[in-house]
Amino acid sequence: MFSTKRTEDELKIIRFILKQFGYKPINVAYFTRALTHKSFLPEDKHDFANERLEFLGDSILDAVVAEYLYTKYPDDDEGYLTKLKSRIVNRKSLAAIGEKMNIRSMLIYNQARSINLVTLEGNAFEAIIGAIYLDGGFEKTKATLIKHVFRNHLNFSQLLSEELDFKSKLFIWCQKKKLPLDFDLVSETHVNGQWNYEMAVFVNRTEYGRGKGFSKKEAEQAAARETLQLMGLSQLLFQVRL
Q1: d(CA 17, CA 14)
Q2: Of 44, 65, 185, 188, which one has the fewest beta carbons inside 10 Å?
Q3: Which positions are catalytic?
Q4: How many CA atoms lie within 13 A of 31 on its CB side?
């Protein structure tokens, strides 16, 4: 048999995946595609971009996280596990993992265009999970996620100690005190292809916290959290069970 000599780019990708995911690629083409954004390709070649792998990786990640939480927390009900899972696989969390892994250093994209690299990192992270699945199968993908990604990049103690819905907690507290609660949009901007929102909280017509996010809902949660802190209601931040 003839040996296939790896190119320097392929070796770089193999070293990166091995270091960050603990997995040694067999078919490097999967991982090259996982790291390729459509901005790098002509329009008729967009099928080679990482979007289909991202779709696949999202589904695999969802299944692995669901099984992991089901096993790790046997006494918690479906509603609580669903909320905890949503904190792990949401866009913000995945983007943070991608940033910690420095996936942007490996991304293949059109650097002449203004692109939100944080979003690209989160998408590429899911695409890499899809690539590992195609390259090594489900069990190896699960082992990679649990032994390397979850262990190195997820703080479950912190996830468990954080309130999942600050807005609801604040609303319930205001209802009990018979105080009007309003969320007002302060600003909305569109930068590098990404919308950014800032919301302000008014309790009894007095402004308290403000929060920013990539969606109005995310900004409201951040504003509600700051309001609870400013009003001396920090104990509500650590009530995990809703």
Answers
A1: 5
A2: 44
A3: 58, 126
A4: 22
